[in-house]
Amino acid sequence: MITVDAQIDQTRHDNKKLYDINSSLDQAEASIAELEKGFWNISSSDNPIDLPDLQEGDVEVPIMMWKNVFVRYHEYTLRCCKTFLMRINHNHELKDTVTYSSIKSVNCMKDGFAEIIFMPTVPFDKWTIFTEGDALETLVKDMAQRKEDQDATLKVTFQTGVPVFDFKPITTAAKRAHDFAGGHKYGGGARAGGGKKMTKFQQEQAQNDAFLDDMMGDLDSITNINVEIGKQLNTHTEELSKQADLVRETNDRIRPTLKRMDKWSDENS
């Protein structure tokens, strides 16, 4: 009896660990969801964010966006980076970053206007932008390529009467590298030197990387705990039934969480 009682106590203790693990997973999933959204309105007049150096392969396109009836349109620059899009204001301050996975589609409209439409997870439904010349074509082609590089597709629509252009992305890395080597009308840059002091934005990225490292370590520990708990399954039915359900639920949650974290890390490394 003493042995059976000890086993039941151990199982109840293990079940408490599993409840705690699922609580930690709730926090982890919420944090990952925030990272996947990008960073919005991260700069203000009181706390401007330094603009990172232009990297090799980055493409910048000038746009305008409606502000209000008093100042009307504001000038911005959209910078297409490897894994996300930056919105930069006329003071060369970083305003927003949005991952390409958060961009659902682009609707090309008359008179140089276009809508960049976001996924439901993003705090804004869309950006309505104004472009001149071939800026919109350059922007759409580059975003379509970035989405293709992440094994995704950018949906592009054209209003009736709007000239249709070819935005089909290049699917081979060799051709992509060749295009970058030729340069872009709207700019490109060399990679920043390794000895430079990190900007505020780069520090923010470094902190996010550290967060992900810690979270990955926690999830590794969770997996190890689950393995050990699995070894301790015994015959006392009621508590073991609870434990089996908890183990199954926890494992089912850990796998997609790890995949989301790996995907985010790959896209932002």
Notes on the structure:
The protein is of the alpha+beta class and 269 residues long. It folds into two domains: 102 residues; 139 residues, PH-domain like. Helices cover 46% and strands 19% of the residues. The chain has a four-stranded antiparallel sheet, covered by helices on one side.
Note the run of SSEs as H and E: HEEEEEEEHEHHH
Number of strands: 8
Q: Estimate the strand proportion.
A: 15-25%
Largest sheet: 4 strands, antiparallel
Name of the CATH first level of the largest domain: Mainly Beta
The number of distinct structural domains comes to 2
CATH topology of the largest domain: PH-domain like
The whole-number mean of residue pLDDT values reads 74
Q: Count of helical segments? A: 5
> What is the helix fraction of residues, given as a range?
40-55%
SSE blueprint and pairings:
Elements: H1 2-37, E1 59-68, E2 72-80, E3 84-89, E4 94-99, E5 103-108, E6 113-118, E7 126-130, H2 135-149, E8 155-158, H3 173-181, H4 200-231, H5 237-267
Parallel strand pairs: 5-8
Antiparallel strand pairs: 1-2, 2-3, 3-4, 5-6, 6-7
Helix pairs in contact: 1-4, 1-5, 4-5
